[in-house]
Write a structure and sequence with these properties.
Blueprint: H1 2-28, E1 30-35, E2 38-43, E3 48-55, E4 61-69, E5 74-79, E6 87-93, E7 98-104, E8 118-125, E9 128-134, E10 141-147, E11 153-159, E12 165-170, E13 179-185, E14 190-194
Antiparallel strand pairs: 1-2, 2-5, 3-4, 3-6, 6-7, 8-9, 9-12, 10-11, 10-13, 13-14
């Protein structure tokens, strides 16, 4: 009786080891990568027929596709731009195996050149204004100061300061309310400041 029990236990262990190896085989033959809101599922030769399912955090099926890998690796892209950034599951199922990957998607950052120019102005007193410019990608800022009444340039200066600077401008015959300032960096980003 002990011998029969030992043989049954050994058989169960070897079957579970084979099942674990089958899962490991599918994991070795597949890969899931994400960049921002795009997911790529790669299946290598040897997978055969498979079903790929994309699930949200709540387990809701968002997409399901059947593929057949013949001869060479297959890459299946998914574009999740219409969905919120977060964690998603990718389930790959064959006739014998199943593996689930968890991937995180993120928003694509806005390129620095697409961000607005960060220039700030402040009236220090009736005849002095302060200009602060931060986050420059390259040195070089053109500052033009206009008369609010005539719209004509009354002062202009090119400032070749890298990254950031702060400068005060004073006027004898005008108040800070009589002027406005236009600031343009070398990338062409412009900001108009009123005081």
């Amino acid at each position: 009786m002990k011998t029969l029990f030992t043989i049954a236990m050994a058989g169960a262990l070897s079957f579970s080891a084979l099942a674990a190896d089958a899962n490991e085989d599918l994991r070795e033959l597949s890969a899931v990568n994400s960049k921002y809101k795009k997911i790529n599922v790669t299946l290598k030769e040897g997978v055969g027929s498979a079903k790929i399912t994309i699930l949200n955090q709540d387990g809701k099926n968002l997409s399901q596709r059947k593929v057949n890998v013949k001869g060479e690796s297959l890459m299946v892209p998914y574009d999740l731009n219409s969905l919120p950034a977060g964690e998603y599951q990718v389930r790959i199922v064959t006739e014998e195996e199943e593996v689930t990957y968890t991937v995180a998607t993120t928003e694509k950052p806005i390129p620095a050149e697409d961000l607005p120019l960060m220039a700030y102005g402040k009236a220090l007193d009736d005849h002095t204004v302060s200009l602060a410019v931060i986050g420059l990608l390259e040195p070089g800022v053109d500052v033009k100061i206009y008369s609010s009444e005539s719209g004509k340039v009354i002062y202009e200066e090119h400032i070749d300061q890298p990254e950031a600077f702060k400068k005060n401008f004073s006027f004898r015959d005008m108040t800070s309310e009589d002027i406005y300032m236009e600031v343009t960096d070398v990338k062409g980003r412009t900001r108009t400041l009123f005081f």
